[in-house]
Design goal:
single chain, mainly alpha, 67% helix, rod-shaped, 3-stranded mixed β-sheet, 7 strands, 451 residues
Length: 451
């Protein structure tokens, strides 16, 4: 965020006053050579005055004044400045009275200018007032008429105004210069601080970048290890599934042969043993179905699931799926209805996988619905075929919907014991639909049912 500096009105700071005093001291030193030259000039030109003392006295006064001012400037500046003003004023007055030169009234402007420049505006006004009184109250022949007095007064006050205007402008410039200098110094210090902070920030950024690079390399290594572990797990699942399927198929085959033709083994087999064999066959088929689900999930995760697509009517797939689950519905007294328009276009899909999805949805609806009905609907929406299976079961809480399609997930710990299932059916079904370029979702309310 840019910083804005608020500049106060110019004021005399100690630094400005010190610089002004140094400048005034330099002006005093520069005035001393002029006093020496003027004093020597008056002494050398004594022949122009009658008597000669009228020229020598002001000259000696100026020479003594120069020495006294030079000495006092080291002890007390104000004393030296006032001595210079009063001395020049006295010398000018002597010249005016003794030399009898009314046209020399302008010499009184010298002490006024010195007082304004060396002491201040108030001193300049006081000197100008004193000089004006001297001009107005002096008897002739110093000022013979009003016009000469007017010209002399205008000269005196004009000099005061010019000197005051120049010194005021110079003081204003010094104040603004000092203020600008202070601001520039503050900005420079702030810039140095910002530069130091920026350097530290750049150093921290470089360190963070180095750490980030290390973490990136570590993450790549960990990701590679995880990928290797995932592939090893999937390969292990596939191998184990195949190894389990062969003996399991033999168990299913032998139990079915015994149950269908018990006389093949000679003597009659007790009914209690046949009942146990039926339990073995049923659980073996359940285990085989579970192995198939795990193998399908493994193929989906590894991208090895192949689809055999053809153009089929969705009505044929629905009829095959409903025929397979109808005994379950009849045993629970549930009504199964199908609502499919006859004019639906054929579907380009793998009919085996789509039938597997519908079987899973219908089986879940039948297992989790104790009373009421289940309805299968198909309709066209914005160029897509939408197939839904709706039940009147207990429904699903909104917080559990996101877990519904995750592998090996059950909504609570009692469902598996009550209804069975491995938690793989919906995740596999969703994957089959997405392999076809479609999507699967769920809509449910507690106590109303699930679609």
């Amino acid at each position: 965020m840019p910083k804005k500096a608020i500049v106060a009105s110019p004021a005399k700071t100690p630094e400005v006053q010190s610089a002004l005093r140094e400048l005034q001291e330099e002006v005093i030193l520069m005035a001393l050579p002029g006093l020496y030259v003027a004093g020597i000039g008056l002494i050398l030109g004594v022949g122009l005055f009658r008597p000669a003392l009228h020229g020598a006295a002001p000259g000696l006064l100026l020479l003594g004044l120069a020495g006294a001012v030079w000495y006092l400037r080291r002890l007390n500046y104000l004393l030296a400045a006032w001595l210079l003003v009063i001395g020049v004023f006295a010398a000018a007055g002597l010249l005016l009275f003794w030399a009898d030169l009314p046209t020399s009234l302008g010499l009184l402007a010298l002490p006024i200018g010195l007082a304004t420049l060396l002491v201040g505006a108030i001193a300049g006004v006081a000197s100008a007032v004193g000089a004006s009184a001297l001009i107005l109250l002096s008897p002739p022949p110093l000022a013979t008429d009003a016009s000469e007095q007017f010209v002399a007064l205008a000269l005196l006050w004009g000099v005061f105004w010019l000197i005051w205007l120049t010194s005021h402008s110079m003081l204003t410039v010094m104040i603004w210069f000092q203020s600008s200098y202070e601001q520039s110094r503050a900005l420079l210090e702030a810039a140095r601080d910002h530069q130091q902070e920026l350097s530290q920030t750049l150093q921290d950024l470089a360190d963070a970048n180095l750490q980030l690079s290390r973490l990136h390399r570590l993450a790549n290594s960990m990701r590679q290890l995880a990928e290797d572990a995932r592939r090893a797990k999937e390969q292990f699942v596939a191998n184990v599934s195949h190894e389990l399927r062969t003996p399991l198929n033999m168990i299913i085959g032998f139990t079915e042969m015994i149950l269908q033709a018990p006389h093949t083994y000679g003597h009659s087999i007790p009914q209690s043993l046949l009942a146990d064999l039926e339990i073995v066959r049923r659980n073996s088929q359940h285990l085989s179905s579970l192995i198939d689900d795990v193998l399908d999930l493994s193929h989906i995760e590894t991208g090895q699931m192949a689809l055999t697509k053809e153009r089929v009517q969705i009505d044929d797939i629905v009829k095959a799926a409903t025929a397979a689950v109808r005994p379950l519905y009849e045993s629970k007294g549930l009504m199964l209805s199908v609502d499919i328009p006859p004019d639906l276009p054929p579907l380009f899909c793998d009919p085996v996988r789509i039938r597997q999805v519908l079987l899973n949805l219908l089986s879940n609806a039948g297992r989790f619905t104790d009373k009421g009905s289940v309805q299968v609907m198909a309709r066209m929406e914005t160029g897509s075929l939408v197939v839904s299976v709706s039940d009147t079961g207990p429904g699903i809480a909104e917080g559990d919907l996101q877990k519904l399609f995750q592998p090996f997930q059950q909504l609570d710990s009692s469902i598996r014991r009550q209804h069975g299932g491995s938690g793989l059916g919906l995740s596999i079904s969703k994957a089959f639909i997405e392999l076809h370029g479609g999507k699967m979702w769920v809509e449910s309310h507690r106590g109303v049912g699930t679609t």
